[in-house]
Design goal:
- This protein is an all-alpha fold.
- It contains 7 helices and 2 strands; from the N terminus they run H-H-E-E-H-H-H-H-H.
- It has helices at about 5-10, 10-25, 45, 50-75, 80-120, 125-135, 165-205, and strands at about 30, 40.
- It has a two-stranded antiparallel ribbon with strand order 1-2.
- Helix 2 (about 10-25) packs antiparallel against helix 4 (about 50-75), helix 4 (about 50-75) packs antiparallel against helix 5 (about 80-120) and helix 5 runs antiparallel to helix 7 (about 165-205).
- The longest helix is centred in the C-terminal third of the chain and has 41 residues, at about 165-205.
Length: about 210
Amino acid sequence: QESNIPLWLTFPTILSFLGGILFLTQSKLSSNDQSELMTMEVNKQVLNQQWIGVCYIISGSAFLASALLGWAIAATTVLDNRDKTRKKIAVYLFIGTMVLTIFAVATILSYSLYYASSIAEIQLSEKERGITACFFDVVGSCSNCNTTLSNETIEDVKICPEWNNGDVLKLVRTQMKQSAALAVIFIMYALTALRFGFTLKTLVSTYEVDYV
């Protein structure tokens, strides 16, 4: 039913925005020292993935727009030809946003699969390995992550010696595989919504307006 469109698209909308925020924040990392913040740039091949974050934001925005259009379509009652035209335009816009969503999600899927297969070729410096490990560490297993520049430079400090280069790249590869799996789920949602859009287009075209 038309009223189910917003609910159906809620899940991919929320996860798309969360994925976009995650990838956008991975392009620049900061330590959390209270006395002195130290901005740290990481190997762009590993964490500078702003454009894939943008694709997630675009897909989330398209999912949200489609949900709002679905709500508008469901709320529109066809009483005359003007109402029928408005509803038909809304359906066309719904189909267009779903096509845009599919392109954005397909881009995410393609890049995620490519990146997951080529991550082993990336070479990280000792500094990049340590900073990247500190970013992904969520249980506090890394040491020297909050090193400041007061007495020694960051090059003089062994950052997160607990993680080796293979550990970091394996975690990044896992993240990209998860991104690919999420993109596949999004494509399934988008294709289902697109099919419903074409069905709705046919139904709206067959509406007959009775004049009294």
